[in-house]
Amino acid sequence: MRYEMMFPHQIREAIDNNTPVVLALGVLEYHSEHLNTGVDTLLVVRALEMLEKEFPLVIMPPFYYGASSFAVEAPERNGTVHVDATVLQSFARQLFYNLLRIGFRNVHVFVHHQSENFAAGMPTDLAFKLAARQETFAFLGNQRGEGWWGSKDAASYYDNHGAGDNPFNWIQIHPLVSATAQAEFPVDHAGEQETSLMMAFCPEGVDMTRFSEDNWYAQTAKKASMDYGNRAREIILRDMRTILGK
Fold first, then answer.
1. How confident is the model at residue 157 (pLDDT cuts 50, 70, 90)?
2. What is the dihedral of CA 157, 58, 64, 197, to 10 degrees?
3. Which residue of 128, 139, 213, 231 is surrounded by the most CB atoms within 10 Å?
C-alpha cells in the first residue's frame, strides 16, 4: 500500500497488524553517461514494489534528496543534487517523530548510496540513524517520563530484548545490498554491479549506447548483464524478506 493512497481505517489496520512501513532513501547523482540520476533510490523503490506483491507493506513516498556529495562530478550540466547531512538529520527527526506519533512501530529505511561503508556509516545513512535514535529516546521520554529506563517498571527491559521487544528496533536503517551480498556482488559506481542491478530492477534507466570511455569508475559496466543483475536481485530480495519478517 502506498501511504499517500491509504485511508485512515487502512492506517489503523496497518498499526494493529504491525505491518512493515518502508522508505526508499537515496540520492540524485551523476552515474556516468549510461545510467540515469536516480539509480541509488530507484533500485530500492523497485525492490519494494516487487515485495509489495508478495506481502503487505506500507510504502512511504521515496526520499531522493540525500547527501550525494560532488565527489564524482561537479553538478553543473551533470545533474547531481546534494543536501547536507545536517539538513537531512533535521528532516529525518521530524519524519520519525510523526511516524511514531501516528503509531507505527515497525519502520524500515533501505539505502543503497555509499552502502559499502554502511557499518561505519556515511552522511546520508548516519543522518537517518542518528535521527532514529534521537526520536526514539524523545518519544519514550515523552510517553514514560524522565527516568523511565531506571524505574521499576523497566526492570524487564533486557528480558524483553531477548523476547524481541526492543523500542530501539522501532526504526531501523538497512543497506539495500547486505554485507553478505556485497561479498558476492561488490559495490561500485556505475560499473558492473550497479549497471546490472539497474538492468534487473529498472531497465529503462540504462542506455548502454551512451556508455563513456572517459570515466574510470564505469569501465566495468561493459561486463554488465541481465544474468548478473537477476542473481543479485534474488539475493537482495531474499535478505529484505528476512529483515521484514517474511
1. confident
2. 100
3. 128
Domains and CATH numbers, the chain: 3-148+165-243 (3.40.50.10310)
The Cα–Cα gap between 112 and 242 comes to: 17
**At residue 11, does pLDDT exceed 70?**
yes
Assign 3-class secondary structure to the chain.
CEHHHCCHHHHHHHHHCCCCEEEEECCECCCCCCECCCHHHHHHHHHHHHHHCCCCCEECCCECCCCCCCCCCCCCCCCCECCCHHHHHHHHHHHHHHHHHHCCCCEEEEECCCHHHCCCCCHHHHHHHHHHHHHHHHHHHHHHCCCCCCCHHHCCHHHHHHCCCCHHHCEEEEECCCHHHHHHCCCCCCCHHHHHHHHHHCHHHECHHHCCCCCHHHHHHHHCCHHHHHHHHHHHHHHHHHHCCC
Task: Of 105, 167, 98, 94, give the one whose Cα is nearest residue 131.
Answer: 94
What is the dihedral sign for C-alpha 65, 107, 104, 97? negative
- The pLDDT mean for the chain works out to 95
Dist CA 206 CA 229 (whole Å): 12
Sequence length of the chain is 246
The whole model's pTM is what?
0.95
Per-residue burial over 137-151, b if 16 or more Cβ lie within 10 Å, else e, is eebbeeeeeeeeeee
CA-atom Rg of the chain in angstroms: 19
Where does the pLDDT of residue 164 fall: very low under 50, low under 70, confident under 90, or very high at 90 and above?
low
